[in-house]
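Reading group handout, session on sequence-to-structure problems. Before we discuss, look at one worked example. The prompt was deliberately terse, the way you'd type it at a terminal:

> structure DNA polymerase-3 subunit gamma/tau

The input record follows.
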Amino acid sequence: MAPACTEADDGTPPVFSGEWPALAASLPLKGLAQQLAHQSELARVQGRTFILRAPVAAITEGGAVERLAQALSEHFGAAVRVQCEVGAVSETVAAFDAQTRAERQRAAEAAIESDPFVQGLLREFGGHIVPGSIQPRAL
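And the output record:
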């Protein structure tokens, strides 16, 4: 679902209309501000204001919103505001990372299960693959 991008009340055009997960992952953030960027979903952009939806209020506290706004302002070269609301999220960096890890895990398991050498060893020695023992190669 693409976020709605609308002009601000003062007529300022939207500063961003792209993919929030890719932008959030690229920002040089640490700590709670990074968690806010990675676990939040872009609800909409209104002028130069990013309205984010966070899964829990705790990640919007402790100056995280201000540090995220500062990183976005530096990224765009213009002052950007961030507002947060709390609610269910789905299109986040964290969700994308979890999906990618799950896909890599399934691919690794499928590769082992279909490998003729592995199948030969299992038949010859009466073995079995221990569930959860297969790990994808490190990137």
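Points for discussion. First: Strands lie at 4-6, 41-46, 49-54, 81-86. Second: The mean pLDDT is 88.
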